[in-house]
Amino acid sequence: MKMRSIFVIAILAATTAAVLFHGSVVDVQQSHHTERISGTGGDVLEEDPVGKLKVYVYDLPAKYNTKPVEKDPRCLTHMFATEIFVHRSLLSSAVRTLDPEEADWFYAPVYTTCDLTASGHPMPFDSPRMMRSAIRLIAERWPYWNRSEGVDHFFVTPHDFGACFHFQEEKAMARGILPVLRRATLVQTFGQRNHVCLKDGSITIPPYAPPWKMEAQLLPPATPRSIFVYFRGLFYDAGNDPEGGYYARGA
Ligand SMILES: *[C@@H]1O[C@H](CO)[C@@H](O)[C@H](O)[C@H]1NC(C)=O
Q1: Ligand 1 neighbour 30 (Cβ under 6 A)
Q2: Residue 217 is assigned to a structural domain of this protein
Q3: Which key words are in the record (predicted)?
């Protein structure tokens, strides 16, 4: 539940430009008795978006979202499960509107990372086709996409290099962001600045971690800690890239 609300806050915060997650730096400074955080750890959203922001959630055919999860429930606990939980939380969110005419923002639930191999690795090779197909449908059935080619639309694209949809950096960069998504807002875990797979205005979010795993790590607040916060950084894929090239980067 907690993780879900964090993601919703991240999404809502973007519309008010109140939160800039990507590139945030947290410096942990040690002193004799206490640890202090300085730097820009991300601004806090102070305004309550309820009543000010309305999000319309497209009702897409199940093949774009719930069907793949039924087929492979491992998608629910995978690090890319954000695409599922953002969708679920928006469905019952106070910012949701059922009337697209009054919407400020449109969300299309397309789960592009739920095609897992036997060993649980997501295969993004079908993602571009799936995304293009969903957008074609949205553009045909509703008038809102064509007004601005999706400027007021957002998508969750949590795969390694976001909407570049490839797990190897060179190939992801050569592909670039899927053209049909270039005007929309992308919510993604990939957050490296000045990278072709991160466009301006994207929202960087943490990968999904199942609540029971998070809860298992909870420490009593008074516990002395030498590490205050830890961000997972580079990923290496020794199997596919024995030379040690980058596989993907954490947010
Ligand atoms: C939006 O544009 C596409 C491509 O030109 C077209 O096929 C579609 O019918 C348009 N949608 C609407 C609702 O007019």
Answers
A1: no
A2: no
A3: Glycosyltransferase, Golgi apparatus, Signal, Signal-anchor, Transferase, Transmembrane
